[in-house]
Specification:
Layout: E1 10-11, H1 13-25, E2 30-37, E3 43-50, E4 57-61, E5 64-68, E6 80-86, E7 89-95, E8 101-102, E9 108-110
Parallel strand pairs: 1-6, 2-5
Antiparallel strand pairs: 2-3, 3-9, 4-5, 6-7, 8-9
Protein name: Core domain-containing protein
Pfam family, one: Fe-S_biosyn
GO molecular function, one term: 4 iron, 4 sulfur cluster binding
C-alpha cells in the first residue's frame, strides 16, 4: 500500500450531484464506499446506499454524504470517488492510487 499518500479520499462534485438526484426519489441516505476481500484481483469495491455509522469517515458536499468505514479507509487513502455516465453505463467510479492493478470493469483491484 502506498503509505506516502496520506490524503483523505475525495468526492467529486459530479458524484455528489448524482447522489443528490438518487436521494430525491428515495429517503436520503449516504453513499457507502467499502473495500471487501474477493473479486478477480484480490479486493473489490462495495458501493451502496446505507445509513451512517458512528465510526465512519463522512465526506459531505451538496447536502449529501459519502461514508467510509475505518477498515476500508486505509485502502482508499488518496482515492477519488466520481460518477461516470458513458455509453457502457452509468456508475460511481473510484480512482485509487493505492491499486497496483485492477480488473477491466474497475470493481476489483490489488495492492
Amino acid at each position: 500500500m502506498n503509505v506516502a499518500l496520506n490524503l483523505p479520499p475525495k468526492v467529486t462534485e459530479r458524484a455528489f450531484a448524482r447522489l443528490a438526484e438518487i436521494n430525491e426519489a428515495k429517503d436520503a441516505r449516504a453513499l457507502r464506499v467499502a473495500v471487501l476481500g474477493g473479486g478477480c484481483s484480490g479486493f473489490q469495491y462495495d458501493i451502496r446506499l446505507d445509513d451512517k455509522a458512528e465510526d465512519d469517515l463522512v465526506l459531505e458536499g451538496e447536502g449529501q454524504a459519502v461514508v467510509i468505514d475505518p477498515v476500508s479507509l486505509p485502502f482508499l487513502t488518496g482515492a477519488v470517488i466520481d460518477f461516470a455516465d458513458e455509453l457502457i453505463g452509468a456508475r460511481f467510479t473510484i480512482e485509487n492510487p493505492n491499486a497496483t492493478s485492477s480488473c477491466g470493469c474497475g470493481t476489483s483491484f490489488s495492492i
